[in-house]
Design goal:
The chain has 188 residues and is of the alpha+beta class. Helices cover 64% and strands 17% of the residues.
Length: 188
């Protein structure tokens, strides 16, 4: 039941009580001291009802504000939380073997050209490891930009005119799992 409708019902009952005692006094059913006592009691109950209504209203508003503050606090914690990482296991396909520095520079250029300086800063991509013999590597990025990194890696063939292709093999959330994948996976 709504708090307002509850207090309106109580107020109606109390005002009915005061009107009834007034009617009894007018028709000489009760004497003046009894009427005065009943009227004062009725007015005290009306004042208490209004006070309780205001108090309940303040409690409800306070609870709503506290819930809103808690919601904002949770959002703030999520915003300040250290971003999660994703590890992309990839394989490089090229005419000649590429060194770690060459692969790193190709990936950095791809991300900067595709998303600009600010975008590449948000992506925070870093080449964790690269095996020059198998031409497999692990690239770390922020979890919310994983798709953007995959898009940038797909642009490698366009950028290098089909001389270098970077093929993503798997994505994982831990570096240990990524290293296991590098050992077991190979492109056919």
């Amino acid at each position: 039941m709504n708090v307002l409708s509850l207090f309106i019902a109580l107020l109606i009952v109390e005002l009915t009580f005061i009107m009834a005692t007034t009617s009894l006094f007018i028709f000489n059913a009760i004497e003046l001291p009894v009427f005065a006592t009943l009227t004062i009691l009725g007015l005290i109950v009306v004042i208490l009802t209004f006070t309780l209504f205001k108090l309940f209203k303040m409690i409800i508003l306070t609870n709503k504000i506290l819930l809103r503050v808690k919601g904002e606090k949770v959002k703030l914690k999520e915003a300040l939380r250290k971003p999660r990482k994703r590890y992309i296991v990839f394989q490089v396909v090229s005419e000649k073997p590429l060194s770690r520095d060459e692969v790193k520079s190709i990936i950095d250029e791809l991300i900067k050209e595709t998303f600009g300086l600010i975008g590449s800063g948000n992506i925070n991509a870093k080449l964790i490891s690269y095996d020059e013999n198998n031409m497999k590597g692990i690239l770390r990025c922020v979890h919310s930009y994983r798709d953007a990194v995959l898009f940038a890696l797909a642009m490698a063939s366009v950028k290098t005119k089909d001389k270098v292709n970077i093929i993503p093999l798997k994505t994982t959330g831990t570096l240990r799992k990524a290293r296991e994948i590098v050992k077991t996976l190979s492109i056919d």
